[in-house]
Description:
Chain A: It is a multi-pass membrane protein. Chain A: Keywords: Cell membrane, Membrane, Transmembrane, Transmembrane helix, Transport. Chain A: This is ABC transmembrane type-2 domain-containing protein. The structure holds two protein chains of two kinds. Chain A is an alpha/beta fold. Chain A has helices at about 1-20, 20-40, 60-70, 85-95, 105-115, 130-150, 150-155, 175-205, 205-215, 220-245, 255-280, 285-300, 325-335, 340-370, and strands at about 50-55, 75-80, 100-105, 115-125, 160-165. Chain A has two domains: about 50-160, abc type-2 transporter like fold; about 175-370, no CATH class. A four-stranded mixed β-sheet of chain A has the order 2-1-3-4, with helices on both faces. By secondary structure, chain B is α/β, with parallel strands linked by helices. Helix content of chain B is about 70%, strand content about 10%. Chains A and B meet through helix 2, strand 4, helix 6, helix 7 and strand 5 of A and helix 2, helix 4, strand 4, helix 6 and strand 5 of B.
Amino acid sequence: MWWIRLKALIIKELLAVLRDPKSRLILIGPPIIQLVVFSYAATLEVKNVDIMVLNRDAGNWGQELIYRISGSTPTFRSIAYTEDPAAVHAAIDRQRVIAAVQIGPTFSRDIEAGRPADIQIILDGRRSNASQLVAGYLNQIVAGVAADTPAGQRAASAEIGVVARNWFNPNLIFQWFMVPNLVASIALLIGLIVTALSIARERELGTFDQLMVSPLRTHEILIGKLIPPMMIGMFHMTIFILAAIFIFGVPLRGSLLLLYGSAVVYLAAVVGLGLFISALSMTQQQAILGAFLFMVPATLLSGFATPIENMPGWLQPITLINPLRFFLVIVKGVFLRDIPASEVLDNTIPLALIAIVTLSAASWLFRRRLE
Amino acid sequence: MKAPVAEPNRLDRARRFAALVRKETYQVIRDPSSILIAFVLPLILLFLFGYGVSLDATRTRIGLVMEDPTPITRDLAASFQASRYFDVTNGNDRRQFEEDLIVGRVRGIVVIPSTFSSDFAAGTAPAIQVIVDGSDPNTASFVQNYARGVVATWAALRGLETGARPPAVSVEQRFWFNPQLTSRFFLVPGSIAIVMTLVGTLLTSLVVAREWERGTMEAMMATPVTAVELLAGKILPYFILGLASMTLCVLVAIFLFGVPFRGSILALYALSATFLIPALGQGLLISAATKNQFLASQLALISAFLPAFLLSGFLFEINSMPRVIQWITTIVAARYLIPSLQTVFLAGDIWPMFLQAIAVMLLIGAVFFTLAARSTRKRIG
């Protein structure tokens, strides 16, 4: 008989989330918008930047350098010219340009005479990531000019080539990296809040006591609360995986079965955490903010934006309780690198442990509240 | 004659307003979750950006393959081993690292081919190969660029020994305001904007949505309090909470993380206080439009928190985004606050820039408040 009770609870839970048309909309629309907007927005490339040039050189080499800079679209959108060092200062200060190139009066003469010539680049350190990349581009352009100077051509024979090959993503397409990351993070975002609210809402509305006096056992209530968010999560996951393959063209090189299998365990871990937060909270507000308090550090410590091995040693163990960390390895690995099943398993076991621990803790908190 | 009539009226209203503010303040102080969001989460965020999450260059694990060890290739290999950017594992066959690259144990493989020594001796364009894990494009470019750097430095040193010419054009580059390129220095000011978004939009929208959900908002409407007083009374405590949370962040940033503070306190508060206007207005609008805590939290997340993170120029350059997304960013208030805050910390007071930011934030705030007031007033009718 227990399955009939359980089925009733699962249907009730699904209705609680899906009954309201606004809720239905918010569960379907925004995750897709997020996936599309953020996978295009989140790029660490630098394009369309504005720079300034102060050219005091009357010769050809200064012109040649400017010509090559202006030719390298889409990196540089516009070049402002000035004669006045104060204008450089003002433009950098007010972030009208990200960098200023200064070519000295003896630039061409030095090159013609075979003396070492130099140029100065001033960059906005407030945007230090972008300006480092811009510095890299400008250095490449200058190196190109230098190679064509008479002295450069003489030195060319001694140069050592570096042939780079990018495995798994030959053109370094940023979306191939971003979309699998977002698949895992958005699932965390929604799964956590939907679940965190489930018990807190009943408690706030007073229906929790009704649930408690119903014939359902505690573990049945927990399972009933566990399955509907997992179903919603699997639905999202499916949409995201389809979007990744068909909209963004991310190659799925590994096994879809491995991906789905580990996704079920991941969602169980996420929902377990959500139920644990829910069991701790007295109100919906506490549940939502509690979910947030977990989610923000979890995203930052997942290896999404910065590799975990770059974090300080004392911080790395903390990431072991973060389900996102393990699932990111699986999603990225299965999509692009076709990682072996053993590697998927190594990252699924910690997820299963997180699920078991959080669900037991939630059920303990549950029972304790009953007495 | 007018004064005696107006006096008690005004007093009345002031008392009424004070009572409202007091009620809301108690609500903030009594709920531990608002304190968590306003003070604990900001500290966690700053702590992570200050110590843990850094975009700075650090040691990346690579595999180094020397196909034919000779004095020349050993010397080049030693340069890789000495580099502070790489954590090198040695090998003599690239196949032994392929598995490591697939599962992510190494981020790249540097191969010094067997022909390297003979090409180097003959002067016929010697080359090395760098295989990187493209599934993480940032790390991939990082490994490529630093491998080039190691090779160029090594070549220059060998070149000097053998008496070749220095490079024809040298570049002298200077990073203003943040010469060491410490990512903490721009991440910490940026995270202050995120913290204020959380307090201003997420917290406010939840609290007000709860009042709608429970019907206490309608109860308040039945009192002599006007809609404007009601809204003002609601947001004043959150305005103060937002500024308090910002102050805590700034103190931690300066005294714990050593972020320089070159601007004025006036500019800092003027910018932050202005930013809270669109943030609170958005929170009120979300709560009035949804009247449901679940919807409000999701909307606040999607329309305020994530854009403050991703569409504000905090982590990703707005110029590099597709045109349509660039348009969307123009209504994200954090986009105007973050560069100004970074300037207050790192560069100093640049008022023309601040005033422009303040004007735009006020405009966005005015739109949000008008819409919020309209959807609140509709309820009374």
